[in-house]
Amino acid sequence: MIDKQKKIMLFYPPSKLYQRGEDRSQGNVEDSSATSMRAPNDLGYASSTLKEKGHRVLLKDYQSENLDFKKLELDFNQFSPDAIFVSITNATIYNDLEIIEKLIEKDKSVTVILKGALFFDPNDLMLNLLPLDNINYLIGGESDFIVAELINTHFFNPENLDKIRGISYKKNNKWIKTDFTSWEKELDDLVLPDRAEIKNSLYVRPDTGEPQATVITSRGCPSKCVFCLTPTISGTKLRLRSPENIHKEILECYNKHNIKNFFFRSDTFTIDRRWVEKLCNLIIESNLHKKISWVANSRVKPLQQETLYIMKEAGCWLVAFGYESGSPETLEKIKKGCTLEDNLIAAEFAKKSGLKTFGFFLVGLPWENYSHLNDTKKLIYQIDSDFIEIHLAVPYYGTPLYHLAKEEGLIKDSVLGKDYFNAPTIGTKYLTMDEIEEFKRKILLYYHSRPTYVLKRVLEATRNYKVFANYSKYGFRLLKNNLMKKKYDQSLDKHMPFDKNKAA
């Protein structure tokens, strides 16, 4: 008799904090300014689908729980899994593989499945750079639709592996890739993430420190930003969950897990005004808008003032914009689909709506020089977001930026093992990486040390001790990451004046 139940261990390995569940943005949280960890929804979806098929599951986020390899090894030995499912990032891949190798060295019969954005249709050159001898499967697509089917096929119908889309698997010691081009699945078909297996208290709203759930509201993006992996991994067709389905998940989080704060995960949350209005109206009609708070990402275009008004009424307190650059040339070259004026209008819309803003900026693109960076600096101060993050451009595999950086000879060896807090190129055609990093550090320090900014944050903090505690935590992180690491190159000042009183 064949045992149809298998034991599957799902985990984030011990490491620094990385947003492993985010296919597009797997940033190093510890080196950020104001970013907090988000719940491991990729593991949560995997757990739900595996349980639905009758399998036993152990889910652990070792990095967020600050647990070491000894704890991982102990759990592994006690649970004795048939397979492990590990979420990795481009930045952590070598450390992750080392941990996995060490973990299974006594039992090579364990099936090893890796999930990560860099495995989306990987080329042979990339695969050859990685020590993958003990890895059985690579998932580069939407793992929540794949992992349960993969487990059942591997153990019970291995002859059908080629029918599973979005995976790479070994056959005769060679990697075989299946179809990476179709995204026909409806998001409403997904079971909800298994939050009973997640320590929800670890993933918090950055200002109050209260538990915050990540709710995926859409996938896919019709835009063509050259640095972004979303169109590659999730397709260019926007797939929206129904407002009713999202509302169901919010209710489950609130009623079963006492979660009152939410991050609505979507690159294009405001792109469909009628869909936003329907979701917001459901929240308002069910009286949830008086009980919950939420944030969302938005493109600066298309965007209507009325959309932000109803979001605010429905409990939204912050909207995040990817402004990226203050240089018209850069905005055009990255194919952002917006202008400098669009950036300013979106910021003004948000302020008029009473919403806080989180601004994301990108520097270090192949063509950029001091003039481009100064344009971005000017925009940062002009917009005056409540929170900002400045990322260093990384030409990830699968993006047009990768091919451009390759053509320009800017990639020294490989992007593997790098993230956008430690960019992998030798710089731009005109700037070294040291110069770009110094720019980022100085902007972050001076921006957050402005008297007007400090006063605003202090006034907010005095109204809520939780806010005070968390602002203090992020303030210390900011200083640690941008002041204590490295002394600034004073020669930069002649190119980029950083007098905070004249910065605007």
Q: What's the layout of helices and strands?
A:
Layout lengths: L6 E6 L28 H12 L3 E6 L7 H11 L3 E5 L5 H12 L6 E5 L8 H5 L8 E3 L3 H14 L10 E5 L2 E4 L34 E5 L1 E2 L10 H5 L4 E2 L2 H15 L3 E5 L7 H13 L7 E6 L6 H9 L2 E9 L3 H6 L6 H13 L3 E8 L6 H14 L3 E6 L7 H8 L25 H17 L1 H12 L2 H18 L22
Parallel strand pairs: 1-2, 1-3, 3-4, 4-5, 8-11, 11-12, 12-13, 13-14, 14-15
Antiparallel strand pairs: 5-6, 6-7, 9-10
Helix pairs in contact: 1-5, 7-8, 8-9, 12-14, 14-16, 15-16
Write up this protein.
- There is one protein chain.
- This protein is an alpha/beta fold.
- It has 2 domains: 7-177, Rossmann fold, CATH 3.40.50.280; 204-392 and 439-494, Aldolase class I (TIM Barrel, Alpha-Beta Barrel).
- 37% of the residues lie in helices and 15% in strands.
- The chain has helices at residues 41-52, 69-79, 93-104, 124-128, 143-156, 230-234, 243-257, 273-285, 305-313, 328-333, 340-352, 370-383, 400-407, 433-449, 451-462, 465-482; strands at residues 7-12, 56-61, 83-87, 111-115, 137-139, 167-171, 174-177, 212-216, 218-219, 239-240, 261-265, 293-298, 316-324, 356-363, 387-392.
- The chain has a 7-stranded mixed β-sheet with strand order 2-1-3-4-5-6-7, covered by helices on one side.
- Helix 8 packs parallel to helix 9.
- It is globular and about 65 Å long.
